[in-house]
Write a structure and sequence with these properties.
about 375 residues, alpha+beta, Nucleotidyltransferase, domain 5, two-stranded antiparallel ribbon
């Protein structure tokens, strides 16, 4: 099928609508492929020449289809589903027409909204980190339920009730049979989740020990093993970001320009971003402010300029961490925090050496 230029696919949960198109955007074939039989998808891709382009939306179930296309020697492309829908406003909608629109967008538009197709190893890291994050949130929800039960019964205990001493105190409380059963079941769930979380963290530690980039990220203030792993998983290949601002925007930490009618309004960070990378950067802020004088100074300056809006200071520090991560990973260097040099001194001039990547070498960020 040498006349084939692109295979456009509208992916659903149980089936995909595939439309085969030529260079003139003409439809030369179409097929409904059901996901119940994976060999059907494999046989479909095997019909096309190597390096044929396959276009699909970045829906929740794209990975196995993209992997099959690449195994068959085809070039898989992911489309930003939200932007594609915005660009298709005004068009009638059906599975066939959606697929045709994706093909035409790929063939004729310079504004083709392609997004990163993460390789298998990056996706595996993401799923591992996100599973741990889900379990941690589940554990927090159960712990909150324990606190809620105790408050409901009139026990306001000012201690760590999940430690050994706290468990002894809880064992001595005068509770009804039902209340004791509820409390014990919740603690059993917490212990079970602790085991699963610890098991996943063992895998995370093993992968971090084999990746030299982890040491670079963990040299940043506030960044520990889990945060470093999250950043590596969610960033993927650092070379896909042309500069530090691009990575900051991807993490949802770059204030967007908001101007209309010649008036510039307050800037806000974008809602569409990699929320897991954003979360990990913000989680690192507390430790960064405590351990780093430079981060503490940045937090204080932004807080003074924005009275009553503490979130802005946290976002500023989180952005600093992400942008420094881009600098360090790009240069393959660890973070070194120097004391600020007096302007015009020899140390200030030396700090502008492009081979250095410290927080106070502001010239490295220009």
């Amino acid at each position: 099928m040498s006349s084939v230029t692109v295979v456009a696919m509208d992916i659903h949960k149980k089936f995909s609508k595939a439309v085969v198109m030529d260079v003139d955007c003409g439809v030369i074939g179409e097929r409904m492929i059901y996901h119940g039989n994976r060999d059907e998808m494999r046989d479909f891709f095997a019909k096309f020449d190597d390096d044929t382009d396959v276009v699909m939306e970045a829906t929740f179930n794209w990975p196995w289809i993209a992997d099959m296309a690449r195994e068959a020697g085809l070039r898989a492309h992911l489309v930003d589903a939200v932007r594609a829908r915005e660009m298709a406003k005004g068009y009638s909608k059906s599975d066939r027409k959606d697929a045709i629109y994706l093909g035409r967008l790929f063939l004729s538009s310079k504004l083709f909204p392609e997004v990163y197709l993460a390789p298998v190893e990056v996706r595996d890291r993401r799923w591992l980190f996100r599973l741990r994050l889900m379990l941690v949130r589940m554990r927090a929800a159960v712990k909150n339920a324990v606190h809620g039960q105790l408050f409901r019964l009139g026990y306001a205990l000012e201690m760590d009730i999940f430690g050994d001493w706290g468990r002894e105190v809880l064992a001595g409380l005068d509770l009804s049979e039902t209340e004791r059963l509820l409390l014990d079941e919740k603690f059993e769930v917490i212990e079970d989740l602790n085991g699963h979380i610890g098991y996943l963290e063992g895998h995370i530690d093993k992968q971090l020990s084999e990746d030299p980039r982890a040491e670079i990220l963990m040299s940043l203030p506030g960044v520990g093993k889990i945060t470093a792993y999250a950043m590596l998983a969610e960033i993927g290949e650092i070379k896909r970001f042309p500069d530090r601002r691009a990575l900051s925007a991807y993490a949802g930490l770059l204030p967007l320009k908001n101007e209309s009618g010649g008036k510039e309004r307050a800037r806000h960070t974008g809602a569409r971003c990699n929320r897991h990378l954003r979360w990990s950067a913000i989680e690192a802020v507390t430790g960064a402010v405590r351990s780093s004088a430079a981060m503490r100074s940045l937090h204080s300056r932004v807080s003074r300029r924005n009275k009553g809006m503490g979130g802005k200071a946290r976002i500023a520090v989180a952005r600093e961490i992400v942008e420094l991560a881009w600098i360090l990973l790009t240069r393959n260097q660890q973070y070194v925090e120097d004391r600020p040099a007096r302007p015009g001194s020899i140390k200030a001039v030396e700090s502008c050496d492009p081979n250095r990547a410290s927080q106070t070498a502001l010239c490295a960020r220009s």
